[in-house]
């Protein structure tokens, strides 16, 4: 087995398609969350089933989100919807392109596919304890994704993003006419709206955790690698 690279070694970690999609996705998600919260302020209640109105039973009463969290900053439902619909298309086509390229260049199989050894309880626990000790990289393979990263990316790319896209399409009247089976798939328009918000909350939680770990593991090193592709082995 080759010796691990010493601290300070530059390693090529992120290929160009991954970097492009990362920043495109970051902008799209940021604007989609902000505009989505602006849309939520128009009727901050969530329901299950097909219908939901002021006198129907809501399973969740959402807060009124402050202006500094919404896009635009002032309450404007029409403008929030325009921002939301445009960047929903950016998200959809960006994700589709990323999936195609990552299958062709074997990024998923090479970097994100969990190995059987990764999923053993002892290995999972070792990775968790290493994170709790602020040790985020395997000294033997410092540029490789650890199992917690792999599982997080699989959940986001394979579950949360498809869910937020499909439920968002279900909320579009034009898509209801073209693909009426979407409403049946999610058990009603209001169920789709609830699942859309839950998926958005999951993506938001991932972003908070992701940014926290980037800061703890070396913010400039992480940002530089996502800009140039090159990552430096930390101490």
Topology of helices and strands:
Layout: E1 10-12, H1 16-40, E2 45-46, E3 60-61, H2 77-104, H3 107-112, H4 121-132, H5 147-170, H6 173-178, H7 181-185, H8 189-228, E4 230-232
Antiparallel strand pairs: 1-4, 2-3
Secondary structure: number of strands: 4
Q: Describe the global form.
A: elongated
Major sheet description: 2 strands, antiparallel
Portion in strands? under 5%
Number of helices: 8
Mean pLDDT, as a whole number? 90
Tell me the Rg in angstroms.
20 Å
- Structural class, from secondary structure content? mainly alpha
Distance between the termini: 21 Å
Which H/E pattern describes the elements?
A: EHEEHHHHHHHE
Query: Helicity level, as a percent range?
Result: 55-70%
General description of the model:
With 235 residues, the chain is mainly alpha-helical. Helix content is 62%, strand content 4%. The chain has 8 helices and 4 strands. Strands 1-4 form a two-stranded antiparallel sheet. Helix 1 (16-40) runs antiparallel to helix 8 and helix 2 (77-104) crosses helix 5. The longest helix has 40 residues, at 189-228. The mean pLDDT is 90.
């Amino acid at each position: 087995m080759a010796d691990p690279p010493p601290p300070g070694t530059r390693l090529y970690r992120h290929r160009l398609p991954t970097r492009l999609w990362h920043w495109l996705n970051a902008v799209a998600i940021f604007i989609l969350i902000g505009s989505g919260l602006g849309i939520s302020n128009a009727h901050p209640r969530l329901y299950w089933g097909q219908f939901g109105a002021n006198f129907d039973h809501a399973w969740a009463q959402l807060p009124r989100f402050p202006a500094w969290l919404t896009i635009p900053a002032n309450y404007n439902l029409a403008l929030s919807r325009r921002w939301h619909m445009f960047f929903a298309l950016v998200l959809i086509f960006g994700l589709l392109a990323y999936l195609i390229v990552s299958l062709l260049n074997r990024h998923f199989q090479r970097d994100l596919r969990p190995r059987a050894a990764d999923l053993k309880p002892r290995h999972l626990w070792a990775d968790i304890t290493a994170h709790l000790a602020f040790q985020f990289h395997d000294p033997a393979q410092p540029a490789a994704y650890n199992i917690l990263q792999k599982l997080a990316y699989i959940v986001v790319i394979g579950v949360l993003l498809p869910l937020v896209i499909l439920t968002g399409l279900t909320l579009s009247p034009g898509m209801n006419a073209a693909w009426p089976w979407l409403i049946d798939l999610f058990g009603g328009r209001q169920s789709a709206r609830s699942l859309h918000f839950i998926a958005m909350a999951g993506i938001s939680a991932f972003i908070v955790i992701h940014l926290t770990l980037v800061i703890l593991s070396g913010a400039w090193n992480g940002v530089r690698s996502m800009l140039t592709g090159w990552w430096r082995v930390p101490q």
